[in-house]
Design goal:
The protein is mostly helical and 667 residues long. The protein contains 32 helices and two strands. The protein is elongated and about 115 Å long.
């Protein structure tokens, strides 16, 4: 009976340690036919334990345990599109442009749905969702309290109604109603966060009206996809509502100063933030860690010389110590970020900053290491090289799973991969990517744009340093499920194929170029044609090259905006001639007429050879006439070859004989 449980283990806590024993030993202590030795072993184990052994009757599982177990049995499908694009396979993006359009369309759709639900909550009162998800239910966006009260003020603050909250606060002050300090803190935070302006709402009738009319400052209201850009352009104005309310306060604590200082730093009023901090000290108040973090990040914008910047940073750190303010991770990250703008001093003081973090028991985040890499990637006459620093960082981080603790954490992997690409270090590049694949670290690659930058650099490094078979393996693994290569990335792949003499794969790469939407990039298409036309190959390869050349011709025919260049026409013609597609090559030759494009003498010589192979004397005569029309110096040579290699009638011989003599050059 105990045989099925032979490999089942149980963890037991004893004196702070975990003991693991075979479940057969437990069964042996009962009447299951086990030996007396096992019984004695179980008895001794029980005697050694100072506490009673309690075996749980059941195991508690999280709600997602089954899904996590199922997910661990499958791997990512490299041929599939990202999960968010799998709702409709027909609409799944196949190019980088479609990817951006699809992403913006999804975001716009969510914003539109949220707008209608929030503006018309009475129409969405019934909840048919199982299970009930509160965050997906309509939110109240209109104030329900109309009376002048602190509760109404808090309601407007929670709804992020900046103007309405300021107006309610002024009404409370006029009526003589005191506002609690906690509510005042929330109001100042709201005003400073949005720089005394209304937060940009989702796209709707109000924003459409602003788009048509424009605001008072002459700026146009942008759609949903550009809200963040407008938000970042906000600047702090003198005597705004935040400053006005702050100056009216009978008592000001450090929390009020903190709101204004952080708002000033966030919106570009760096010098004013330091003046506010001086006022805080004059009032014998102590700053909090958030104030110091903001001021440290603003140091490079208030001091010009490198020494002055570090002196000010050092002074702020000393003041933190005097005021007994314990620094946090963002404090040291702000110091390192400011050091990046301190020139030669950065390499001296950044290791000291790391040692200080270690002494205080603060674990660095990916942003910390990103700042370190950026500091040591700058050229300098002394100190360790950037690749040595990267090697040490990757060795320290190997196998570690991270969570986002700083907004700049998402910059680490792209910065590290850029260093590998610049240093042409494939081994470190693999180490960086192996760290990305640990746990959920791939989430720290950033948004789709930053993710594309990372994979673009990784793929370029592979194309530059790795064997083509390995490059193609990675290419099939990350395209298009993780990355849409841009034209430079595809050029790198073409160069890798050329380096390893695998030009026979060029037609396959052309299909991918079309799928990725890069077939309208003339430079990329010309590079592809140049590699195919550079030298002759086997009959099978030349047939595939000719089919690829004809497909390229169809692309040019379907897109009037794409104009043939002389080199492209010549290369397509050569490819068709090598595949014995004489008539189609002749049609390409006719495209030279009337477009100020002149074929080369070598191309016409190849056509003449093809005319001889196809026993077409009339085409040979027309070729000589075409050469004479373009005024090519090779015309007499073509005429001599035509007279010698073809059987011409009298009329044809007469025409060709006119071009046999070399034309006299004008003085």
């Amino acid at each position: 009976m105990a045989a099925p449980c032979k490999h089942v283990g149980q963890h037991i806590h004893r004196n702070g340690r975990f003991l693991r024993f075979n479940i057969d030993q437990l069964f042996a202590s009962r009447s299951f036919g086990r030996t007396s030795a096992l019984q004695q072993q179980a008895t001794d184990l029980h005697k050694e334990s100072k506490e009673a052994i309690v075996i749980p009757r059941k195991k508690s599982w999280s709600k997602e345990a089954v899904l996590e177990a199922l997910a661990s049995t499958v791997q990512r499908d490299p041929t599939a599109y990202p999960y968010q694009f799998q709702d409709d396979s027909y609409l799944s993006p196949r190019t980088s442009a479609e990817f951006n359009l699809f992403s913006l369309s999804q975001e716009s759709g969510r914003a539109a749905a949220k707008y209608f639900v929030n503006c018309n909550p009475k129409l969405f009162t019934k909840d048919f969702a199982e299970p009930h998800i509160p965050c997906l239910m309509p939110e109240s966006v209109a104030p329900c309290l109309e009376e002048v009260s602190e509760a109404a003020l808090e309601e407007r603050i929670s709804l992020r109604k900046v103007s309405a909250a300021v107006e309610m606060y002024d009404q409370l002050q006029q009526s003589g109603t005191a506002v609690s300090m906690e509510t005042t803190h929330k109001l100042l935070d709201l005003i400073c966060l949005y720089c005394d302006k209304e937060p940009v709402q989702e796209w709707g009738p109000k924003t459409e009206a602003r788009e048509e009319a424009g605001d008072k400052e002459g700026r146009r209201w942008k759609p949903v996809g550009r809200r963040l850009t407008n938000f970042l352009k906000l600047t702090w104005k003198d005597n705004n509502n935040a400053e006005r309310i702050f100056n009216l306060l009978p008592e000001r604590d450090a929390r009020c100063y903190s709101a204004l200082i952080r708002g000033m730093v966030k919106h570009g009023a760096h010098a004013k933030a330091f003046n506010m901090y001086a006022d805080l000290l004059n009032n014998r108040l102590s700053a909090d860690v958030h104030i110091f973090n903001a001021l440290i990040s603003a140091v490079p914008d208030v001091k010009e010389k490198f020494n002055e910047r570090w002196d000010l940073i050092d002074e702020l750190l000393n003041q933190m110590k005097e005021q007994k303010v314990h620094p946090n991770l963002l404090t040291f990250n702000s110091v390192l970020k400011a050091l990046r703008r301190c020139g030669f001093l950065a390499k001296t003081f950044s290791p000291q900053t790391l040692n200080e973090m270690k002494a205080l028991g603060i674990a660095p985040s990916l942003a910390t290491y990103e700042h370190i890499l950026a500091v040591f990637s700058k050229p300098a006459s002394s100190g360790p090289s950037s690749m040595d620093v990267l090697q040490n960082v990757l060795t320290k981080l190997e196998g570690t799973s991270f969570t986002c603790q700083d907004p700049d954490d998402v910059l680490f992997f792209s910065t590290a991969m850029k260093m590998c690409l610049d240093g042409k270090d494939l081994e470190l590049g693999y180490k960086v990517h192996s760290l990305v694949e640990v746990g959920e670290n791939c989430r720290l690659l950033g948004d789709s744009y930053q993710r594309g930058i990372y994979y673009g650099r990784f793929f370029s490094l592979l194309c530059m340093m790795e064997h083509i078979d390995v490059v193609l393996k990675w290419y099939n693994r990350i395209v298009p499920s993780l990355h849409y290569p841009n034209p430079p990335g595809m050029k790198s792949l073409l160069q890798a194929l050329d380096t390893d003499s695998r030009l026979d794969l060029l037609p396959t790469i052309w299909k991918d170029i079309k799928t990725l939407g890069h077939d309208n990039k003339l430079n990329l298409v010309e590079d592809l044609l140049s590699l195919m036309a550079r030298e002759e190959h086997s009959v099978e390869v030349q047939e595939s090259f000719a089919a690829c050349a004809l497909d390229i011709k169809r692309v040019f025919d379907e897109r009037p905006g794409m104009e043939w260049r002389t080199s492209s026409l010549s290369q397509v013609s050569i490819l068709l001639l090598r595949a014995n597609k004489f008539q189609k090559a002749w049609d390409m030759l006719q495209l030279f007429k009337g477009k100020s494009r002149v074929p080369s003498g070598a191309l016409l010589s190849s056509f003449l050879t093809a005319c001889r192979c196809n026993a077409s004397p009339q085409r040979a005569v027309e070729l000589v006439q075409l050469s004479a029309a373009f005024g090519l110096p090779t015309t007499p040579e073509l005429a001599k070859r035509t007279l010698a290699e073809f059987e011409l009638d009298d009329k044809q011989r007469s025409i060709v004989s006119e071009f046999e003599a070399a034309p006299e050059k004008d003085d």
